[in-house]
Amino acid sequence: MLFFDFLHYLIFKFYAGFKEKGAVSTAAGIVGGFQTINVLSIILLILLTQKQKIRLEAWVVIVLFLIFQIYTYIRYVYKENHSIEVIERKWLNKTESSIERMTYLLYIYGVFSVVVFIGLAIYVGSRN
Q: Is the model's pTM score more than 0.85?
């Protein structure tokens, strides 16, 4: 989960730059959203392999979203071993080149996740 910890940290730093009071919970919510769209993308890929038309029910999406939101919120807001200070220490213990690579990787992950999810949702929706 170190990958998502660093994603949470970068999102937190972005929102903290705007002096947002709830930057920790906002970052946790965004990380939970990314995890949800990743799982939904996998489900959509599985649906593409099915010969018969199968719909993804709205309640499934809502339940997945709630599970990931609750999990990430508890993990980053209430757990001391995943606090911003702990994650920041791990982040700063990395070399400068490692930080730069990880930052690029996280940006690519974010863009890729959103584009693939939207593309799959549109394609599967148009097939049905």
A: yes
